[in-house]
Automatic annotation (TrEMBL):
Pfam assignment, any one: TPR_12
Domain of life: Bacteria
Region (Disordered) location: 344-386
Record-linked InterPro entries: TPR-like_helical_dom_sf (IPR011990), TPR_rpt (IPR019734)
Signal sequence bounds: none
Name of protein: Tetratricopeptide repeat protein
Length: 386
């Protein structure tokens, strides 16, 4: 099936006319306005829909505490309305937020529930988004064997249904796995296909992420610094216009990566420091740790004491391990060898056992979703990371 224009199915009800390219500040303002109107009218189904848009706008703007409150309120409103599909969308938002905050076990739990609720509620779109969220969580952790097939399956389904936005997401995820395993030619082809597909579908967010991927491959494979920086500058325009805080921070970190590879260490240092501040502001632990790693490498190249570098890399190794990134130790120890400070000292954190945060195997357990009986919110405030 031919792909049409990209849509934003998370914008529902009174917000259904919003574009996938709508500024997030505009989405948030409209969402809050319509949410208040729905509350005044006593319409829980509309409260759930508007609350979902508020949650997603807050999450993408890096306002994580507000996003956390909003997705839970959306879930409760959907539950009171007996709308299982709307409950699934709220759980998807909550699971995506958990992943953004580095809480992988919680992300797996909520996204698996969201996929089941979507199936029970007859909403194949939220089911697909939730499965995609599971696949992305596993990919971020480096569990490519577990999620590679799921990425390919979701790509095929998205193409069959003509869902351009989901097609772009899947292409980018598969491309990233190829890039990380050293197949740069395949990665570049997929990133370029994603950028072209996003462009035809008017999906500016998806295109910005694809351009970032292309820039990365051109930098690491070809050493083409200027072209990489041009692509990142183009992507930054879209990120700023749409207020994509997380995408912008990752764009800035990639720009620093490109400069570091080119030996422009002072510029790279400043870029990593900028990205680090942005990640810290939005409380994104994965981005924070990766920006710290880049900054540590740049500072070492600029003459930082070797002992200080080794101590920071050792701490970062433990931090990334706690977050649950499988390739963290390899990344940090590669940096230590590159900088001449290996082997790193062994700390108490490095001796700890493996966390139970890997991609979930086996069938999804039966959920208590039956006609006329929907479950309570399946996560308490205490379980939500702060």
């Amino acid at each position: 099936m031919a792909q049409g224009k990209a849509s934003a199915p998370e914008y529902q009800g009174a917000l259904g006319s919003l574009s996938v390219n709508s500024s997030l500040t505009d989405v948030l303002a409209k969402g809050v306005e319509e949410l208040r109107a729905a509350e005044a009218a006593g319409e829980p189904r509309e409260m759930a829909r508007c609350g979902l848009a508020v949650a997603e706008a807050c999450r993408r703007l890096g306002r994580v505490e507000e996003a956390d409150r909003a997705w839970k309120a959306s879930y409760r409103a959907a539950r009171s309305a007996g709308d299982v599909a709307a409950m699934a969308w709220a759980l998807w938002s909550g699971g995506t937020l958990a992943r953004q905050r580095g809480a992988f076990p919680l992300a797996y739990r909520l996204l698996r529930l969201a996929a089941e609720f979507g199936e029970h509620g007859g909403d194949i779109v939220v089911r697909g988004y939730s499965l995609a969220g599971l696949a992305e969580t596993g990919r971020i952790q480096g569990d490519y064997q577990a999620v590679g097939e799921l990425h390919e399956q979701l790509l095929a389904e998205a193409r069959k249904r003509g869902e351009a936005r989901h097609t772009v997401w899947a292409l980018e995820g598969i491309a990233q796995m190829h890039r990380n395993t050293g197949d740069y030619d395949r990665a570049l082809a997929l990133f370029e296909e994603a950028a072209e597909t996003a462009g035809r579908a008017d999906d500016r967010r998806g295109r910005a992420w694809a351009l970032r991927g292309i820039a990365d491959v051109l930098s690491v494979r070809d050493g083409d610094v200027e072209r990489a920086l041009e692509l990142l500058a183009e992507a930054e325009v879209a990120c700023r216009e749409m207020r994509l805080s997380s995408a912008l921070a990752y764009n800035h970190k990639m720009r620093a990566n490109v400069l570091y590879r080119a030996g422009r260490y002072e510029e790279a240092r400043d870029g990593y420091a900028r990205a680090l501040a942005e990640f810290r502001e939005m409380e994104e632990p994965r981005g924070t740790a990766l920006a710290r790693l880049g900054l540590a490498k740049a500072l070492a190249r600029l003459g930082r004491d070797a002992g200080e570098t080794a101590a920071e890399l050792s701490e970062l190794r433990d931090t990334l391990d706690r977050i649950g990134l499988r390739h963290a130790r390899e990344m940090v120890e590669k940096a230590a060898a590159e900088l001449g400070v290996a082997p790193l000292p062994v700390t108490d954190g490095a001796r700890g056992g493996r966390r139970n945060d890997s991609f979930p195997e086996g069938p999804v357990p039966e959920l208590p979703v039956t006609q006329g009986a929907v479950p309570e919110l399946p996560v308490t405030d205490e379980e939500t990371p702060r």
